[in-house]
Amino acid sequence: MEEINASIDFDRRLAPLDIEASLAHAAMLARQGIISPADADAIREGLNRIAQEIAEGRFAFRRDLEDIHMNIEARLAELAGPAAGRLHTARSRNDQVATDLRLWVVKACGRAREGLRDLQRALLDKAEAHAGTIMPGFTHMQPAQPITFGHHCLAYVEMFARDGGRFADAQARMNECPLGAAALAGTSFPIDRDMTAGALGFARPMRNSLDAVASRDFALEYLATAAIAATHLSRLAEEIVLWASPGFGFVALSDAFTTGSSIMPQKRNPDAAELIRGKTGRILGSFVALATVMKGLALAYAKDLQEDKEAVFAAADALELSLAAMAGMVADMTPDRAKMRAAADTGYPTATDLADYIARVLGKPFREAHHAAGAIVKLAEQKGVTLDRLPLADMRKFEPGLTEDVFGVLGLEASAASRASYGGTAPARVREQIAFWREKLK
Amino acid sequence: MEEINASIDFDRRLAPLDIEASLAHAAMLARQGIISPADADAIREGLNRIAQEIAEGRFAFRRDLEDIHMNIEARLAELAGPAAGRLHTARSRNDQVATDLRLWVVKACGRAREGLRDLQRALLDKAEAHAGTIMPGFTHMQPAQPITFGHHCLAYVEMFARDGGRFADAQARMNECPLGAAALAGTSFPIDRDMTAGALGFARPMRNSLDAVASRDFALEYLATAAIAATHLSRLAEEIVLWASPGFGFVALSDAFTTGSSIMPQKRNPDAAELIRGKTGRILGSFVALATVMKGLALAYAKDLQEDKEAVFAAADALELSLAAMAGMVADMTPDRAKMRAAADTGYPTATDLADYIARVLGKPFREAHHAAGAIVKLAEQKGVTLDRLPLADMRKFEPGLTEDVFGVLGLEASAASRASYGGTAPARVREQIAFWREKLK
Amino acid sequence: MEEINASIDFDRRLAPLDIEASLAHAAMLARQGIISPADADAIREGLNRIAQEIAEGRFAFRRDLEDIHMNIEARLAELAGPAAGRLHTARSRNDQVATDLRLWVVKACGRAREGLRDLQRALLDKAEAHAGTIMPGFTHMQPAQPITFGHHCLAYVEMFARDGGRFADAQARMNECPLGAAALAGTSFPIDRDMTAGALGFARPMRNSLDAVASRDFALEYLATAAIAATHLSRLAEEIVLWASPGFGFVALSDAFTTGSSIMPQKRNPDAAELIRGKTGRILGSFVALATVMKGLALAYAKDLQEDKEAVFAAADALELSLAAMAGMVADMTPDRAKMRAAADTGYPTATDLADYIARVLGKPFREAHHAAGAIVKLAEQKGVTLDRLPLADMRKFEPGLTEDVFGVLGLEASAASRASYGGTAPARVREQIAFWREKLK
Amino acid sequence: MEEINASIDFDRRLAPLDIEASLAHAAMLARQGIISPADADAIREGLNRIAQEIAEGRFAFRRDLEDIHMNIEARLAELAGPAAGRLHTARSRNDQVATDLRLWVVKACGRAREGLRDLQRALLDKAEAHAGTIMPGFTHMQPAQPITFGHHCLAYVEMFARDGGRFADAQARMNECPLGAAALAGTSFPIDRDMTAGALGFARPMRNSLDAVASRDFALEYLATAAIAATHLSRLAEEIVLWASPGFGFVALSDAFTTGSSIMPQKRNPDAAELIRGKTGRILGSFVALATVMKGLALAYAKDLQEDKEAVFAAADALELSLAAMAGMVADMTPDRAKMRAAADTGYPTATDLADYIARVLGKPFREAHHAAGAIVKLAEQKGVTLDRLPLADMRKFEPGLTEDVFGVLGLEASAASRASYGGTAPARVREQIAFWREKLK
Lengths: 442, 442, 442, 442
Hints:
The structure is a homotetramer of 442-residue chains. Helices cover 63% and strands 6% of the residues of chain A.
């Protein structure tokens, strides 16, 4: 029973927050005249000393005391004597643990946002250096149209921006204080919940005491948001693994984020990218775990809720490591312009440019333009040349209206530059977006 | 292959949105001079007629045309002739389907928010009628302290408010238009994406064309938000199932939301509550499904993304049905004051009130107060009486300072009334919160 | 990078198995003449000493050495000198870690099977003591028909038997040895994989070296099986929580598996049952985690696979703790015959017995019998009596063919005894099943 | 309420099984003398006619009759008159629906096994044709060692074999009949459950009536097994998507399983592979959905269980389509020997062969051999040649013991052939395994 019941092995991470919440509670109790100034002093001094003991690794956590609250409480009794008992006035372990975890998750949201911004900055640096670097834009892993590597990087900047927005929204929503809900019904002591909420950095106290001790949707929202961010990380990780593979060869990763082989000196395994990709599982699994715990749970408090912490800690660790590793890996990686360009030039990726040109410039119906372009591509294929090397005369067989001007859209750079619609891959557009994000991420 | 490839069986739900997006696109193409006014007219008329055919159930969906876009396109070709082909100028199925689904999910967020508000109103009505109705507040399914049924209802009002907030945030975040991203890289036609975005009710066009066709985090956020709301629904559903069980007998459900037994006339099975509880699975499963699809998917478009729609539709249907059924069930249910009160009076639920009283009023250290209260409860138990029926003399054996005044906290109503801290169960506090929510939900 | 890359914090649990596998590999290398007897001796002695150091807690695990294999390898180099390097002949970390984890999971299957059998025995003891104890059989949490508590316990014996069967099947299926697959392609050394497989207790070597290093479906099957078992545990846990709640009062739990309240002496919180119920989340989440990792992973080895271990360890710990706690809790719990019987006697639970009697004995069509029974129940309800107390004359108003004989089916015990079809709740049937399981679980 | 309650839209798929079970039940009732031969005849004729009506699409399913059982029952009442009512003797919808779904899932296991075998055969054909076709064996998506394409195909044959084994085990375990459990407690009618079980092809009746109506672990096991198989399918699908990408170019897919672009004639999008990869999500999501439904569900029957069917149907459809599409795609695909071989010859993939040779043949300690090989590779890299083109003299600078004989292991074919350990990639070994599987899959 002790083994299944004790949570001290993992909830010790809450220690600094538990102490912070107790300090706020004691100060409030004293100001409201619920405990004496002397008791408040004894409690404060005791808690500060415990905080120091823990910070210095001198605190002896005991499993028989089950959880972090009891471990601190027992030590406080040694240090502060009877005053320690008064700290528990007008609160219970139910609102205490809800407060501790909420504080932890609020901070985790902040760390995630910062990690996402760092990653965005790393991507932005690469985007800037490669706003005009041609690479193949893939659909179905087949080269479809030439794009720029900067444009590709910016796609992820957008995704991580929305992830950051989600964390910000979650953080704002959860920024309410459960402390003072007591066991589940509030208390008859004349407490001041605005004071404790404020001292702990919360925007306000929670409005319903049952909800305060029974709800964990703040943790679920954190986990869901992390899981969505993890899908974005996994997509970028997958691409990096592929880009680093010789079949692509689009980027070289640095030694710091790869492992080598002493015998195959050119081999650099993208371990960090693979680990990031894999950690998606842990994070999604953590969300499923806590959602399953919460499913069908009657109010108000039940011990099932003890399962909230490990899910949150595991996901937060995985997410934060992944963000940091990804930011470092992106910063360190070296795109190979030549290989990207060569890959972009397979499969007649400017065929749609030709069709668009025939429609746009020569005013042909879309379907006809499409048909002519297809025929021209087929001929180029038979002749084994790229479109921009096919003689004009050959093209005119299928579309007599074509002039030399057409070559302006058939090259990769020309194609990319022509896609200048808002959000398009034209380097000028890409640079506009870089400027936008530079300003945002200042 | 046709069987695995065709999506028309489910994506036909997107038909009205697909037409709406095409109308906006055609109008923009015409205003930008990309297609002629005559073509635009022919397209508009054709699309309007298709919309009518679909609305009237006269449209012949064809599986060999794979998806909703091709079905509409083929019919438009019949109706509008060559103009139909020009509608596809400067767009592709990739941005088209991203736009359609986004429009659908934006609206689904709106429906979820409305459904949540209706449910909150039903709970608020019950809370108002029962702001002072005593029921047991449970921890670990054991009666812990008397609370009011109104207070309990308000706990769910809070949870559903946060769910609504999450849907609102998601809706705002996804309110960007992918249309104009074309296949993945934007287009060389001089399109006006602000115009189409505005016509479709979006706040702005998306800033990156790759992101526009490749991302589905808007759908994931919808699903995650729905999954979290579903855990709240499942908790209330679980409680209703228990409350309707004879061991509790706290509420009677109406015939409309139960099924009966012709032979056991008093039996009312809470089928609706059970179905709502069960649908949590479908909704959570849908999030897992789409998150798994997105994991490790290289940019930009891949056919895997076709799996987004069924997950979203299944979850939205389950959520909307659950919200409506729950609102109706709550509105219809009849709390049984007597049974709730009787259940609240088992297990000495005012024992903590007594301890708090000794500490608060008599100024005893919390631990001593606790000890005296425990001894008094033990005596009451031996005598087989509730605390408010134990003679004062008996209590004084353990705490001589007690006076008649103590009985003011020992009754259930007195106990509840005394928990008047902010967010507490005191009926006065509950009524304050009801007023707050009445204003919010106007 | 070190932080995301290092696995030594969790894979140290594989240490004994890693050493066992290395011992088997070294012995095989020596017998095949690939390494010298002297080298084999040095390796064996070194590994045995390392095993002892680890067992005695004297081994200094180093994070900079990343994983358990490198930690042991480095120490072996100190102890055995150049021979240590030869241990790595004809194997790689890829097949080594696959072997270690497989050994671990095979054993975990064994522990789960034993834990399930212990739990079945505890349930069987309760079933035997209560083969005739009447309780309500619920549908929709409404009493439907009287059953016996023994019958209810046996339902779980069946579920846990199937869980055990699943673990046995999984164990048999995974009982193949990856060792010798080397990095991914096998080796040119003349190794004897049958010998190592046999030494490690495997049935045979795996047949394909790529599969051996790339597959983790053995771990997925373990996790899925654990997740299914966890749903069963959660159902029993939910019932125990409800049964221990005063509204039911069906069982009293022992102090060992509950936590109390010093101030409410009668309160026993079913913490163990709640924790078991909650751990379903962790176990299901672990399956989702690893399934997500494996989704779309190209062959053969990728670092994503490092994520397999924590998922497996977390789930195994949760499952094994839950099984042990549940077995203890069931063994300790005391059913309350009177409360169960009283609950079984609400809601006219023998109404269907009456209908069946009219159909079976009087030969009336089922629909008519049903109708008459319904009318009789309604009358009993109006008179406020249970069916077995309603005068025969009253019954005859609706079904004249009834005689005194009918009372033989209207009592709870009679009803239960009458359901003597195979698998039914009749105590005689229940005792037959108990005998069957006693024999099986010997 | 009707909308959330009705299941006829999806459970109509159970119709043939519901009728089959009713036919078996009626025949048993008649043989046991519970209903008359005349009634049994009327029921049988009515049910057969309904079966025909459904098969011919003439049956009018009615939503107001909720589910398939009531739809059939109502029609039977029209066709068979009062006899129809007697069909419901000694059974209830609870055991009826459990029986129907179990029959469905038993058959689904059979279809999955057959689909897996077909896929294995397609892989085996490819393996046979390419037992000696060299391709790069990847770790971390980096070429590590040459293997053969046949060997790679066989890795999947192994995985799908285990999947088939899991379905077989699940099928055997679930092959027990719930019919006769009635509502939850069995029945007082003298039914013969062995007879109905036998008639429906089950091995035996279930041993506990509560378990029979309350358990769905047979469906969970099916879903978990499907989810594991789906991870294997997704891995092969991922590889096919990559292999078909120009960066690899390892295989050409047939038109039947790709979609093209009219304008880029050489483009073949691997839509089928992507859809298969994506369907992993649906299948895993279905398992999570049902596991969530089952979590914490008290016995015996609750309406939550209605959620079992859609999860099972959705997963089965996705799995069966995926298996068929994958088998067809594999059968149709054309490996490109030249591209595979060229890719295998990048990155000095025989470096470990050289090291193994120095250790194995020259008897050098592994570490020294490794060091010499690394130095030789570095030199080859500087000279820009593959290892088998580096002059012997160059190699001898680092390892003087080398002779011409070493070239026997430095070529790709030689390397592959040398890995002749059991399960290794040597073509001879591969052919042995092909023979083994040919025999197994006859």
